Amino acid sequence: MLAPFFTTPLTITSQFSFCGLPLRLDSYAGCAFSCTFCFARVRGGNSFGDVVRAADSAKLDRIFRSVFEEDDTSGGMVRQFLRRRVPIHFGGMSDPFQPAELRYRVTESFLQALARYRYPTVLSTRSKMVACEPYINLLKQLGNVVVQFSFCSSRDEVAALFEPYSTSPSNLLGVMSTLAREGIAVTCRWQPYIPGVSEPAEEFVSRMSSVGCRHVALEHLKIPIERSHPLWGKLTKSAGRDFYSEYKSLNALRDGREYVLPPQAKLPTIREVARAVRTRGMTFGAADNEFQYLSDTGCCCSGVDQFPGFENWFRCQIGCAVREGFGKRITYGSVSRHWAPIGSLDRFLNSRSRLSGRTELSGSLHDHLRARWNSPKAPGSPASFYGVVPTAEITSAGNKVYVWDSKILTALGDLKVSAGGL
Ligand code: SF4
C-alpha cells in the first residue's frame, strides 16, 4: 500500500554526534523489502511493512535551486550543510530501489537533481535496480558517488531467509562488478553480521574483493528489547534460533531500544574481517559504534573520504575526536576546531532529545555535543567508545577530558592501522 507524500526527504540524522555523513536523503518512507533484522523501520509509530510513502519528486531539485542558484543565504541547518557540500547519504532509512520506484520514480528524480549539481552522494541499496537504465547513466553523470551495497551474507540461501525480498547476493555481486567496470566506486556493508549464521570472514571478503569492492564495513546484529516486537517471530523462525537467549547468555548490553553484544564478544570477528579486508588491499570500516575509531579512513565507518569529491565530510563530531585522540588525551578542542553549522538542531530531533524549552540552551549543535561530551553515561559520549575512560579533569572551557585504558589500548594495537583522513 502506498500513500503520498512524505515531506522531509532531506534531513539531519540523529547520529550526528558520531557520523561523518549527517545529511540523510530518502526517496520513500517505509521499505517494502521488509528485512527481518530491520527493526528501526517499524519504530516511531510505523507499522510492520505495510505503508510506503513517496517523497515529492521535485523537492530536492527545488532545494538545490534555491541554495545554489537563487543566492539563498537563509540560515537553515540543512542549507548550510549543502552550501558546504557535505556529502549526502541517500537511502539511510529505506531502499531507494524498492518496488515503489518502478511506479513513482522519485529516486530517478533525486538522482537527476544530484547529477545536475554533481553533489557528493553515498547511495545505499540491496537492489539490482541500481545497475539498470536510467540509473547507471545518472550515476555516471553524477560522478561524485559511492554505491554502498549491504549484505547479511554473501550466501544466497542465508540471505533468502533473512532478507527474502531484496536482490540475492549472487545477483548483487554481479551488479557490483558491472558498476565497478563502469568506473563507479562500489563499497559494501556487512550489516548485519549474524553471529553463528553469517559465513566465515574469508569467504565473504574474497567474494567482495573479486567484484571490485573498495571498502568493507562490518556491523553486528542488534536485537530489539521487546520480545513482543513484530519482527521477533520472523527473525527467530528464519534462523531457527533464539537470539534473545543467546544474546542474554553473552551478557548483551542495552543500547537505546536494542540489545547489542558486548565489545569483547565482537572483537574476534572484527579482527578476522579487518585482516581479510586489508590483506586484499581494501579498506576496513568498523560500523559497530564503539569501535568506529578502528576504521581505516577518517569518515566514520563509511570509507568514502578516500574518493575524490568527498573531502567535506563532517568532522565536528565526537567520533572524529576519539579517532583523532587515539592513544592520547581526548579533549573537546578536537571537536570545536572543525566547521559547524549555526542555529538550532532541535527541530531535527525527537521531543525527548531537544534542549531548548527544557534547558536554558538554544539547542545548537555544540550544545548537543557538549551535553553528551560532559555526561559519560550519555549515548554517544566519548566513554561510549571501547577503551575510553573519563578523568576528573575539566578544561578551562568547562569540558571533561578523557583518556584511554592502557590494557585495552595494548590489546587493540594490531587492529588500528592509522589515524589518517582527518
Ligand atoms: S532494504 Fe534496508 S531499509 Fe529496507 S528493510 Fe532491508 S535493511 Fe531495512
Give structural notes.
The protein folds into 2 domains: 10-306, Alpha-Beta Horseshoe (pyruvate-formate lyase- activating enzyme); 318-415, no CATH class. The strands form 4 sheets. The chain has an 8-stranded mixed beta sheet with strand order 1-2-5-6-7-8-9-13, covered by helices on one side. A 3-stranded antiparallel beta sheet has the order 10-12-11, with helices on one face. It has a two-stranded antiparallel ribbon with strand order 3-4. The protein is built from 15 helices and 15 strands. The protein is of the alpha/beta class and 422 residues long. The chain has helices at residues 59-68, 77-83, 100-104, 106-116, 135-142, 156-162, 169-181, 201-210, 232-239, 243-249, 263-279, 318-324, 333-336, 365-373, 406-412, and strands at 10-12, 23-25, 28-29, 53-54, 88-90, 121-125, 145-151, 185-193, 215-220, 223-224, 253-255, 258-260, 283-286, 388-394, 400-404. Helices cover 31% and strands 15% of the residues. Helix 1 (59-68) packs parallel to helix 4 (106-116) and helix 4 (106-116) runs parallel beside helix 5. The N and C termini lie far apart (44 Å). Residues 44-49 have low confidence and may be disordered. Iron/sulfur cluster (SF4) binds next to loops.
